[in-house]
């Protein structure tokens, strides 16, 4: 009789299994009982621990697969150069590759193509209705100069067009930069926004293409921004008139400088000094860090307002969201930009202090244990997190490699937990798009605070880093879901718009320039091989403009880069694409 059909109805058969002597005579059954006991113990083990360990194993396996795919891709590249089909180089120094040169997942290819088509739709709408202006208002089919008429969307999009291989669109934009871009405007510009979008966009495109017109234009606008740093402390004013050079702070800050606005120019101005050989740009922005380091707190957390005359930080919030975020991001990324040498160790040391402070702001929601970053005012914490703070998972993942094994795993795990929270910012609304910020209440997990969505990139940025650094394709799936939500709710015939309310889905009338610069670029790279903008050769500024990593020598002496080594970056596709939309 089969073992599973034995009768257990008799009294003796019911109770004999409770007698220890029964098992002592039957060691095989004792072993089986032990196995059952252990199995049940595992089943009742804390579910989150099991899930986390399972995800780590999957991540390690997928990372190995990703590494093998990248190795295969590199072998194919070498084969084409040595005996195979040699990639054609045109007279402008661009590499025109065929689609067959890229060996990756067919699903990734399809998703990447969809993102590329979305970029074409956004770009062609801008080109048709707002050419040369800062931003497109898709519903009214008109342009608006949100940044003084500097062509913000066009400049922000240059490197995205280049990376995606949209040559025809890129060339037209390049010609506008060469012939029409004029910075001599009687306009009070944000030093921060102009630096990250315009200086960063131009320098990135120079690094990618090798076309010197972009470097010349970057130097022009940077020279107009420099007087903002002429303060007693070196902490810059945050607003400057581009034609007259008058600098000041916004009235609504009470004359104070904003932390993020004052500490998010280092990558761009250091890169400009390296590419021009002129140290003045680097000196201005590094003086800020030197000054702040003199009184940098043990927890590395600074309030969002700083007096540019005295350097004092008054009573103001501490946050990894609006007005604080990218200060901490750049402490890490200047270290990466300098190739992690002793010349940039100060930045890493300050960043690690700040990460100790970040740990003190971490809380978990109930009942679902979503990990989130609180804001701090004085000695009290507020259970609120901006979507802007969703850059932090990517930052933590990128910085985790600089720690020893234990701390590295701790910060990577924190990055993954925060990314799950940020993804749920999207998944928890009817439109599957995130609100601007969220509040956490005991027993209720998260709820939307400010409910608009303006096409922000921070969550997909972190998904990009986590996929690159773990190989876990779950992050690609999350990103795809977010992209589909944008397609469903934000795409209209004349571009992409934000939502006034993520609950109702009511649309606004603005296509933010960072949607093309960041959101679509990170989504495209999320579905591209790791050899496209590899993280050991490039560092992204806070507007997603990649800058080449340049090793910093001891003492930080600026040396002009050899222009002959400024090779154009090869892309996945080099063919010309037709317009859509």
From TrEMBL:
Organism encoding this protein: Trifolium pratense (Red clover)
Domain of life, per lineage: Eukaryota
Protein name stated in the entry: Uncharacterized protein
């Amino acid at each position: 009789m089969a073992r599973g059909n034995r009768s257990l109805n008799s009294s003796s058969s019911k109770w004999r299994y409770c007698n220890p002597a029964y098992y002592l005579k039957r060691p095989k059954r004792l072993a089986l009982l032990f196995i059952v006991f252990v199995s049940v113990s595992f089943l009742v083990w804390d579910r989150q621990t099991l899930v986390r360990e399972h995800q780590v194993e999957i991540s390690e396996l997928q990372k190995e697969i990703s590494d093998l795919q990248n190795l295969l891709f590199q072998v194919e590249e070498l084969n084409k150069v040595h005996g195979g089909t040699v990639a054609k180089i045109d007279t402008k120094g661009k590499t025109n590759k065929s689609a067959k040169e890229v060996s990756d997942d067919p699903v990734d290819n399809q998703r990447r193509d969809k993102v590329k088509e979305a970029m074409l739709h956004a770009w062609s709408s801008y080109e048709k209705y707002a050419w040369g202006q800062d931003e497109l208002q898709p519903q009214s089919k008109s342009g608006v100069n949100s940044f003084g008429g500097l062509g913000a969307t066009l400049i922000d999009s240059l490197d995205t067009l280049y990376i995606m291989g949209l040559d025809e669109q890129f060339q037209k934009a390049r010609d506008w930069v060469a012939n029409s871009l004029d910075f001599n405007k009687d306009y009070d510009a944000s030093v921060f926004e102009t630096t990250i979008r315009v200086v960063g966009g131009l320098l990135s495109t120079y690094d990618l293409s090798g076309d010197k017109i972009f470097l010349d234009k970057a130097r022009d606008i940077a020279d107009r921004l420099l007087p903002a740093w002429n303060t007693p402390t070196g902490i810059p004013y945050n607003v400057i008139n581009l034609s007259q050079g008058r600098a000041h702070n916004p009235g609504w800050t009470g004359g104070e400088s904003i932390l993020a606005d004052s500490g998010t120019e280092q990558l761009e101005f250091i890169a400009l000094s390296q590419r021009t050989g002129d140290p003045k740009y680097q000196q201005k922005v590094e003086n800020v860090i030197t000054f702040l380091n003199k009184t940098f707190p043990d927890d590395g957390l600074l309030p969002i307002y700083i007096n540019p005359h005295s350097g004092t930080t008054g009573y103001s919030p501490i946050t990894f969201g609006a007005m604080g975020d990218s200060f901490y991001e750049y402490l890490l990324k200047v270290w990466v930009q300098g190739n992690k040498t002793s010349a940039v160790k100060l930045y890493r040391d300050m960043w690690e202090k700040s990460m100790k402070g970040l740990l003190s702001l971490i809380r978990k929601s109930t009942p679902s244990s979503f990990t989130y970053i609180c804001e701090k005012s004085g000695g009290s914490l507020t259970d609120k997190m901006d979507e802007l703070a969703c850059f932090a998972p990517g930052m933590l993942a990128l910085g985790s490699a600089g720690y020893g094994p234990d701390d590295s795993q701790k910060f990577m795990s924190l990055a993954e937990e925060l990314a799950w929270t940020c993804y749920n910012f999207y998944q928890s609304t009817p439109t599957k798009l995130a609100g601007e910020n969220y509040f956490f209440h005991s027993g209720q997990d998260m709820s939307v605070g400010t409910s608009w969505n303006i096409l922000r990139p921070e969550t997909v940025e972190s998904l990009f880093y986590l996929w690159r650094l773990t190989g876990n394709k779950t992050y690609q799936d999350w990103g795809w879901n977010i992209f589909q939500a944008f397609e469903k709710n934000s795409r209209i015939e004349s571009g992409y718009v934000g939502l006034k309310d993520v609950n109702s889905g009511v649309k606004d009338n603005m296509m933010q320039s960072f949607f093309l610069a960041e959101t679509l670029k990170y989504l495209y790279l999320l579905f591209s091989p790791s050899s496209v903008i590899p993280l050991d050769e490039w560092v992204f500024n806070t507007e997603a403009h990649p800058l080449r990593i340049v090793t910093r020598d001891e003492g930080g002496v600026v040396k002009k880069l050899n222009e002959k080594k400024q090779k154009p970056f090869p892309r996945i596709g080099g063919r010309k694409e037709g317009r859509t939309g």
